[in-house]
Design the sequence.
């Protein structure tokens, strides 16, 4: 019985989160980030300085009552993220942008990083505006739409945690023995910390709302819409489902709700079904070999990045199992190369045939001749 399992894919990304606060690592983050994100940091500095110049910041931040007609300040959807009123938040946001560039740009490319930035910030800005308009309709308090300034990188902070969860879910960020935090836990942990800061009065409710929307919209984009270099879209891996953002105890209940909503969106033709996975298995007593292959569908003979990550992880696991003391190196090399060739083979239809105890035709004819001669 042979079983091939290619689950829990991960990007082959270097461990960029450990020791990031070392002086050498900080210098590396600054020097290795791209020019465009250094310009974004300059824009953040200018946005911070604008808060000292009269009402200039009101022309850069999103004011819900001025975003829609008759004022129609649509440009604030692009500028609000570059405005900060606190110098410490300015430094944190600059560090966040440079770290975002260093970790994701080698994987995605410059254009995709910029596109992710503005898709997330614009979606977060519009949704936060709708929240304040809803509060205005419920309370008829004009301060909800005219005395609120939406600004900062709360949405990008939430989106960045989702991106790191996707590329390095098993990477350990904090390991204190009694407390171990992986990057897979960062999105929900960021939401909880921002909620705590809001409750104790360290941040405004706007920031907490932006973090939630940042996590949600970035997951939607990465899960369903992000284009990859091989022509595929999204990430259909089981480690990136919506329920994976929650603690394991409540994941089954969240999965029921999220799957129901997703199936409804498929019926309404708003979303497309995710690629299916194929399982080919023979019965235990059927005389057939047992093979389990779980990989995404192939489109135009080009496999998506999810399948590539699965193959890399399977190959790594097989090589580690081959590294046992006392075995011949040539034999290990031969098995490793055979395994690599098997993993790199394209997906084809597998047909199982039962084993037969009947002799081959040539052997059967020889036996008949012997009987006739006797």
Sequence:
């Amino acid at each position: 019985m042979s079983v091939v399992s290619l689950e829990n894919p991960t990007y082959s990304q270097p461990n960029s989160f450990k020791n990031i606060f070392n002086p050498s690592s900080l210098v590396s983050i600054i020097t290795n980030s791209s020019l465009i994100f250094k310009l974004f940091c300059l824009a953040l500095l200018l946005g911070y300085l604008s808060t000292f110049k009269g009402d200039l910041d009101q022309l850069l931040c999103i004011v819900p009552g001025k975003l829609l007609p008759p004022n129609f300040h649509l440009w604030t959807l692009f500028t609000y993220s570059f405005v900060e009123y606190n110098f410490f938040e300015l430094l944190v946001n600059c560090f966040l942008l440079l770290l975002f560039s260093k970790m994701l740009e080698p994987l995605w490319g410059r254009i995709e990083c910029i596109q992710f930035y503005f898709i997330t910030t614009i979606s977060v800005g519009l949704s936060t505006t709708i929240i304040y308009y809803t509060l205005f309709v419920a309370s008829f308090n004009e301060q909800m739409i005219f005395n609120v300034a939406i600004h900062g990188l709360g949405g990008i902070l939430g989106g960045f945690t989702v991106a790191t969860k996707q590329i390095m879910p098993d990477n350990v960020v904090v390991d204190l023995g009694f407390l171990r935090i992986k990057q897979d836990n960062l999105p929900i942990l960021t939401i909880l910390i921002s909620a705590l800061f809001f409750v104790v009065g360290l941040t405004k409710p706007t920031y907490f709302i932006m973090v939630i929307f940042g996590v949600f919209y970035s997951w939607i984009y990465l899960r369903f819409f992000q284009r990859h270099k091989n022509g595929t879209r999204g990430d259909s891996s089981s480690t990136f489902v919506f329920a994976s953002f929650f603690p394991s105890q409540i994941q089954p209940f969240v999965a029921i709700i999220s799957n129901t909503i997703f199936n409804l969106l498929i019926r309404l033709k708003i979303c497309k079904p995710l690629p299916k996975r194929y399982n080919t298995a023979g019965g235990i007593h059927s005389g057939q070999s047992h093979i389990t292959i779980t990989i995404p569908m192939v489109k135009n003979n080009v496999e998506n990045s999810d399948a590539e990550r699965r193959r890399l992880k399977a190959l790594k696991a097989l090589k580690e199992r081959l590294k046992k003391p006392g075995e011949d190196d040539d034999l290990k090399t031969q098995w490793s190369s055979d395994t690599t060739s098997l993993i790199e083979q394209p997906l084809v239809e597998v047909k199982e045939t039962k084993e037969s105890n009947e002799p081959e035709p040539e052997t059967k004819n020889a036996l008949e001749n012997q009987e006739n001669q006797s």
About this structure: The first helix runs from residue 23 to 32. The longest strand covers residues 172-175.
